[in-house]
Amino acid sequence: MEDEIRTVLSEELGDLATFGAEIPERYRRDWLSEQAVTPIAVIRPRTTEDVSRALRLCSRLGISVVPQGGMTGLVGGAQPVAGGVALSLDRMTAIEEIDEVMATVTVEAGATLGDVQRACEQAGLFLAVDLGARDSCQVGGVISTNAGGNRVIRYGMTRENVLGIEAVLSDGTIVTSLNKLLKNNAGYDLKQLLIGSEGTLGVVTRAVLRLHAQPQSFCSAFCGCADFAGVIGLLKAARSTLGAALTSFEVMWPSFYDFMCDGLPELRRSLAGRHGVYVLIEASGPAGQARQSLEDLLAAEIDAGHIADAVLPKSERETTELWAVRESVSEYGRLMGPLTGFDIGIPTGEAGAFVAEIEAALARHWPDVHALSYGHIGDSNLHLVVNVPSAGAHQPHDALCDLVFEAVSRYGGTISAEHGIGTIKRDYLHLTRSPSELEVMARLKRALDPRGILNPGKVLAPPHSATSQAVSPTVSPSATPPSGPA
User: Fold this and answer.
1) Which domain holds residue 309?
2) 169 found inside a domain
């Protein structure tokens, strides 16, 4: 049967399709998976019409299609399936137009986020979506996972920065809605169905992204707080004092900060002594204004007792050093064995209690555990990275997921804040989505993908999941992501 499918694909798609041993390794697994899967073919279209032709053909043949972007996801969303095809948009990289009047950029889905950022910067505009994997991740993947990043507190998730989308449905239908208008209430907003759907409802081929004025300067401050109550006081004051100038509010608990600083000699501690919680604040604005606003904020918050100590960098080099610890997540492989990473959302005011509870619970179950807590707490996103040294290569990831996700549910949080569901969180989705929500999701899937060929086994379990392959959430220390768990 597969030989017949290969023949049909080859005849109808020509050089768009690659088969067997000719398929490069990068298309056989996404970043998270240790197990390579060779699909029947990799299809690399050059145009939206090529995508339409490929999906129409696969729908007719009844074979699964896994869309692939930059392969930097952390939930197994781009992992190919045996007996299906992988659809990579890495040939569709055009930055078609930067409209300086409308403040938009129109791009093909295979363009990397970093390339689009640089093109916009040259035009004097600013693409606010930013990820550590910016030079690897592709716009289509960023949209399909509704990626977040460090500046969500100011500019929102990817969803808030997408004005228009062109996509291809499972039957090959091209839906073009490349809207540039900030205000457009004409009927259903179809793009919202596709943003964050992880390629299960359609394949994004082009997009219109919203741009902003290029900030004249960014300024950062590093703070030590005695406890999480101080962090909450600082966050409220930062929102009030800085307003729209507040672009990042990153929090690191000692479990993360001390572990990374003690383990990586190139990192420099920016504050004397040790503190209960550490905070990185970034503000943007006209030259000099951001720094003055931060100085005023720090002085007031030290007087209020929310900050025990703080530092403002005097140079770009010192700014880089301040952020080095927070961005050292790509170095986990140097410090620990296989790890299980959690990207969760917790109501901001409860994050301190949650961290204290979950770190204590993990230590009770696994006394030698490394549990590192940090994240974008200004937008309620917490990252937790866990390694049990005594377990070696056989990390207890199922037990870890059960423990952590049950606690997330009790706290009214979400099992996925910015990396999606993929395969590794699919079976826990019911903990943070109601039965009625799950049923509506299933209805949408049936309506837009009636044959169930698009990214099977991702997000929602398909009625027949013989071709879906779950991916272990345990990350190999040798597989360092372009950004690490952000």
Assistant:
1) 217-329
2) no
Residue 316 and residue 410 in one domain: no
Among 206, 177, 212, which residue's Cα sits nearest to residue 97?
206
Same domain for 324 and 346, yes or no, is: no
As a whole number of angstroms, the distance between CA 484 and CA 44 comes to: 27
What is the DSSP code string of 264-308?
-TT----SSS--SEEEEEEEEESTTHHHHHHHHHHHHHHHHTS-S
In a domain, 481, yes or no: no
Stretch (H or E) spanning 134: none
The answer on 230 and 323 residing in a single domain is yes
Max CA separation in the chain (angstroms) = 75
Residue 484's identity, in one-letter code, is G
Distance CA 201, CA 199 (A): 6
**Residue that terminates a domain, selected from 419, 449, 467:** 419
Q: What gap in Å lies between CA 97 and CA 99, rounded to an integer?
A: 6
Question: Looking at 329, 364, 395, which one is the last position of a domain?
Answer: 329
If asked whether residues 304 and 355 sit together in one domain, one would say no
The domain that holds 310 is classified in CATH as 3.30.70.2190
pLDDT digits (tens, 9 = 90+) for 270-320: 998 999 999 999 999 887 788 999 999 999 999 999 999 999 999 999 999
Q: Which residues contact 305 (CB under 8 A, 6 or more apart)?
A: 230, 233
Bridge-based pairing of strands 309-311 and 217-225 is antiparallel
Same domain, 273 and 324: yes
**Signed CA dihedral, 388, 391, 397, 400: sign only:** negative
- Domain annotation covers residue 152: no
In the chain (486 residues long), the average pLDDT of successive 10-residue segments reads 85 92 86 78 97 97 92 80 93 98 98 97 95 89 91 93 98 97 94 95 98 92 97 96 94 97 93 95 88 94 96 92 89 88 95 98 98 93 96 94 97 93 92 95 96 93 46 41 46
Provide φ and ψ at 163, rounded to 5°: -100, -35
The CA distance from 19 to 60, in Å, is 19
Structural domain tally of the chain? 3
- The predicted model scores a pTM of 0.90
List pLDDT tens digits, range 163-189.
Answer: 999 999 999 999 999 999 999 999 999
368 and 448 share one domain = no
Distance in angstroms (rounded) separating the CA atoms of residues 272 and 275:
9
Structural domain contains residue 188: no
**DSSP labels, 56-100:** HHHHHHT--EEEESSS--SSSTT---TTSEEEE-TT---EEEEET
